[in-house]
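Risk register update: the risk that structure generation would not scale has been downgraded. Supporting records follow, first protein first.
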Amino acid sequence: MSAPSGEFDEVEEEIRRFSGELEEKYEQKRRECRLDRDQALLRLSEMEAETLRKVEAEWSAREKDLELLAAGLEREIASIRDDVSGRIGGGPALKALQEEFFAMVLGEKEP
């Protein structure tokens, strides 16, 4: 028994049509996946940028706090130095010795 040629042609045409539909669906899914991936990468990039901005702001605030602390400590040291200088009095040699002592105590000069 042999099948008529028309039936084979119909089957081949149906296979080509079905194959074309599958190819279109595959390409559509591929484009969707690529778009999803690009959007996810963009969101990740935005999150990283926001995290970086937050960290920079935090470090900037900490640096300002440290500057204020350092300035306060320097004023306190100057106040103590003035207080001690006022109590000691004396001539220029004693003042020079006193300044040298303060420089060593504060780490400004090697002993």
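Supporting record for the second protein:
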Amino acid sequence: MGEGGTVGVEGYDVVFGLARAGAASVDPDTGRFLRVNPEMVRIAGYPWEELLGLTFADITHLEDRNGDFERFRRMVRG
């Protein structure tokens, strides 16, 4: 544990990689996947390298895109 009981970068990397849920880091400006864990690769159904070239909108059902994009923007704004 880091200072103040926080988990350092190494701990985050371990949790991210071993998470049983799909996890991704996404560019806040473009929505492009920057990093995905193995479960996200499985859920999305794309090879790792291809998924990293896509945006979350690329893998979102057309009918869900507007709502998902708005939730993403609110999250980015804080």
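The radius of gyration is 14 Å. On this basis the risk owner (M.S.) recommends closing the item.
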